[in-house]
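FORM 7B - TANDEM STRUCTURE REPORT

SECTION 1: FIRST PROTEIN
SEQUENCE AND TOKENS:
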Amino acid sequence: MQANTQPIDRETLLKEANKIIREHEDYLNGMVATDVVQQNGVLIFRGEYFLDEQGLPTAKSTAVFNMFKHLAHVLSGKYHLSA
């Protein structure tokens, strides 16, 4: 996949990802990507998952998971992390 994608550094990619998050119709207050890694050509975003006191997922957790999945789908086709 890297042959058809542009290199991008982690900080710039996170800025773009968080811009996409804020502008998305499913944005929730506090939703933010704080880290990204690349595995087998796929960008994997990480951040707060809004777990409850017992560490279990909440309704917001699903929204965050779906947003990070959206970012992976949109941005993995455009970019790969530069070394």
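SECTION 2: SECOND PROTEIN
SEQUENCE AND TOKENS:
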Amino acid sequence: MKRTWAWPAVYLLGGAAVATARFLDGSPVGAVVTLLLFLLLAAVFSPLAFPMSVGAAEARRRSAADGRPVVYWRPGCTYCLRLRLRLAGRARRLHWVNIWRDPEAAEAVRAVNDGNETVPTVVVGGRPHTNPAPAWVRRQLSAAGS
């Protein structure tokens, strides 16, 4: 699945433009702070913030083999981003499924959330958990031996 760099590029270009304007107005410190803020936004919204997504069927297959949770997510979801950031490096050990790129995944999420595409929905051992606490997800990873 192709991952997009469009929004991070917009943040980088916009940040560079605003920082340049601040620098030319005689505020070099403000320019640096602005540029750092936009760089942070670009990093958070980049494909680097989330591990590569796989399809729902592949995620279920991998989870059955290694016992690791499956996380259904979508771009722009602040709760998904919160989960990802709180898990830090452990997030790469989960199986991430982007529901906007996989209709089967979106249907699976709707099926367990009263018709709503509420994410993150984390599936552990075949049981879905909607918007679980990051600490709970870390414990599930530990239990899976990851």
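SECTION 3: OBSERVATIONS ON SECOND PROTEIN
The first strand starts at residue 70 and ends at 73.
The beta strands are 70-73, 95-98, 121-124, 127-130.

SECTION 4: SIGNATURE
Preparer initials: ____
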